Amino acid sequence: MKVGIKYCGGCNSRFERTTIAEKIKADYKNLEFSYAKEDEEYDFIIVINGCHIACAGLHDLNSKKGFIIIRDNDYKNIKIRIDEIL
Amino acid sequence: MALMTREEYIESLRKMNLKVYLFGELVENPVDHPIIRPSMNSVAMTYELAQQEEYKDLMTTKSHLTGEVINRFCHIHQSTEDLIKKIKMQRLLGQKTASCFQRCVGMDAFNAIYSTTFEMDKEYGTNYHERFVNYLKFIQENDYTVDGAMTDPKGDRGLSPSQQEDPDLYLRITEVREDGIVVRGAKAHQTGAVNSHEHLIMPTIALKEEDKDYAVSFAVPSDAEGVIMIYGRQSCDTRKLEEGADIDLGNAQFGGHEALVIFNDVFVPNDRVFMCQEAKYAGMLVERFAGYHRQSYACKTGVGDVLIGAAALAADYNGANKASHIKDKLIEMTHLNETLWACAVACSAEGSKTASGNYLIDLLLANVCKQNVTRFPYEISRLAEDIAGGLMVTMPSEKDFKDPEIGKYVEKYLVGKTGTSTENRMRVLRLIENITLGTAAVGYRTESMHGAGSPQAQRIMIARQGNLESKKEMARKIAQLDLSKDN
Fold this sequence. Notes:
Number of helices of chain B: 18
Shape of chain A: globular
Number of helices of chain A: 2
Shape of chain B: globular
Number of strands of chain A: 6
Oligomer: heterodimer
CATH architecture of the largest domain in chain B: Beta Barrel
Radius of gyration of chain A: 12 Å
Low-confidence stretches of chain A: none
Mean pLDDT of chain A: 95
CATH class of the largest domain in chain B: Mainly Beta
Strand order of the largest sheet of chain A: 2-1-4-6
CATH topology of the largest domain in chain B: Butyryl-CoA Dehydrogenase, subunit A, domain 2
Strand content of chain A: 25-35%
Order of helices and strands of chain A: EHEEEEEH
Structural class of chain B: alpha+beta
Number of strands of chain B: 14
């Protein structure tokens, strides 16, 4: 499966956003991850926001199964949501 | 390529033939000069973060002119969301550099000139807007840093530009030719001038018809014939010249700068002229640039984040972090910093569309935002100094600390909380010194006071925008005043 990763801009992150992405990549080695680009289509897109405001722009991003919007570092819950979509 | 890398930016500056003077000497290589370099590193960060996936959402956007991905610093705001992302980008860069990163003035000038030229053309049938759009495409395509230059030296503040004994104390048109104009004068306090590819000039005050030669907006390359920059010195700046300087700098990597930029009969071709003697529109351009730039002081919340963090670390190293008054002071610092942020968000969220299509911040709230900035960083600094303790200004130098003879005494007697490093304690205290009274205090304190207009300039705008008459009417109705009883 092709999975897009999109970050917010990180102006006032409550946690290290890249660590979350690294954890996901390590736990789902069977998935094909890349940074979400607007001219490509993904099976789903993980949007990693550094706070609850979740301001990352999703305009023009294409996803077959929707978006997983992350706004905290509750990794257990993040995994549940990824597993649900899989 | 619409996005330059950090390295490409540095090399592009190196290729310019800038005339920069510092300590009375022409600087042969401004890019690598130890006093200038940290300020260039701050601008370079605006390029570096734009290349990183985890910051792109703030640092880049799509040009409404070309559809290409561009650095947000070259963008014309297309929505209130754009205005909010602008200030988030500025807070982020404040956090990353703890300094002034200098690129905001250009962005604010772009947006002010964009809408003003549109409205000017509508009245006069001129083609300034088209010229400016073409210029902006050139800037976006090359990802240039631009010094948006407004402040004239101003001489006798009681006299208008044309009444000054020396007519050059406000930048002016000295000749209008068929192919362009010739200008003479200077712009003072020019943030990032030496790190900029271009200077984009605007008038400094609203003007009357008799001052029409001062109503001028144009762009020139920073190394244009007749342009001279004199670098502004900063508190503690020569520490950067000390051999192996590191701890004593507080912030060895980053800084900001201002320069006095002289225009000695500089020729500007017509395609780079965006206002030429239209005195009526000088006020609009000044008001809009000032409004955008007062919103831009959101950057100070990012520097404030670093200062609050440094004060908290100082308390940790002092072993005082559990004291209730220390905790309360850190809360107060955060409260003040987030109050600054709240006004920056508010003036952005309440922005509105101009006739040209770009978005302008709410001018009243932007002025309230900046008015707070003239005060709160001083109080945040005072609290940081309170928490840090007097050692931040009495501490021996790095050379003493590293000296084989006496270093052991500095190590022994300046240690803080058991088990912590003396060097780390010194580094944190020097960072607080740097922001509150060293080189970065130029940006965090006095620039907060006077940048984008001194406090009184905001109070004039607050009075203009405050809608006092309608407030009086509200009070009249509630109090049930019978106006016929008044003489």
